[in-house]
Amino acid sequence: MSHRLCLAALCLFVAAITARTTGVIFPVGITATEAAPAQAATPKPATPQPAGAQAPPAGSGYAGNDSCLKCHDQEETLKKTPHWQAKNPRSPMAAHGCESCHGPGQAHIDDPDNLKIRKIKEMTPSESTQVCLSCHNRGTHAAWEGSGHERRNLSCTTCHSVHSPKSFEHQLVKENETAVCAQCHRVQVTKTERAVAHMPVREGKMSCSSCHNPHGSISNVKNLKVGNSVAELCMSCHTEMRAPMLWEHAPVKENCATCHDPHGSSNDRMLVVRMPMLCQRCHVATRHPASIYDNNAITVNKSNRMFGRSCVNCHSNVHGSNHPSGQFYMR
Predict the structure, then answer these.
(1) Cβ–Cβ contacts within 10 Å for residue 219, how many?
(2) Could you tell me which residues are beta bridge partners of residue 172?
(3) Domain ranges, residue 99
(4) Is the pLDDT of residue 53 over 70?
(5) pLDDT at 46 over 60
(6) Taking 70 as the threshold, does the pLDDT of residue 155 lie above it?
(7) Residue 198: in which H helix or E strand, if any?
(8) Which pLDDT belongs to residue 270?
(9) pTM
(10) Are residues 210 and 239 in the same domain?
């Protein structure tokens, strides 16, 4: 008798464990086989569908993306751009498609001769830019209003093209970033082709936006991408020149462009003027004799400062020194 009770208790224990594990407890008199069809009839949650342009509500004035594409065959061009990515909730395709930028188009469809839509090319620079800023208003674009390019009456379409981009990145109106900047900044772009230019530019590993933010900067007037000054920007890469040092050279701390032309130069190390003429711009009457390094210094006097590395032959640590005896930047 005791064995039967133990067996019955064990069966009840196994049944309780099974019910807790599966989450299914059958009422008395109903077997698992009878309950299976009821479980199979339970509806499964619907699989979410990919997002797309929202269907326009009645009376809203929006015609829908399909209505635009019947006449304006732009899908092949646009589907390769971020504007056509419906999965991104901030893209035009996730809202009203074409009408996100061009405005409601139902009136234009009802009367094609009556253009009641936004034609970006015919809008003023400030008006067309406001269309873009309705989405592109954060990150690197946050400082556009009041920037140098905005004050000169430029717009987003001056550099970018939504429908006919010629570049692989950023939808530019030219093949690459340098060609876009060269439309206005010809002098600076020409310098990058000089004998001594900023090395990675011509190799394609560095571009104008590596140093500048074309959409504006809040902290400086040169549209610099990093820091509040030219020196801070340069030292974000050239960290070996970063202060503080025990003996600091004033031009290094103030502005690297005092001695170097960052876009390119005909002189060694991108100097704005050859040495020793460069050094003599400041050091004219102290330590060394105030000699004028002109043609005679080369042909007649044969000054040793006109050969080799000039002043840097001795003052090798011209960017600053941490040596206790480095006040003359010689070690």
Answers:
(1) 11
(2) 160
(3) 73-118
(4) no
(5) no
(6) yes
(7) none
(8) 92
(9) 0.72
(10) no
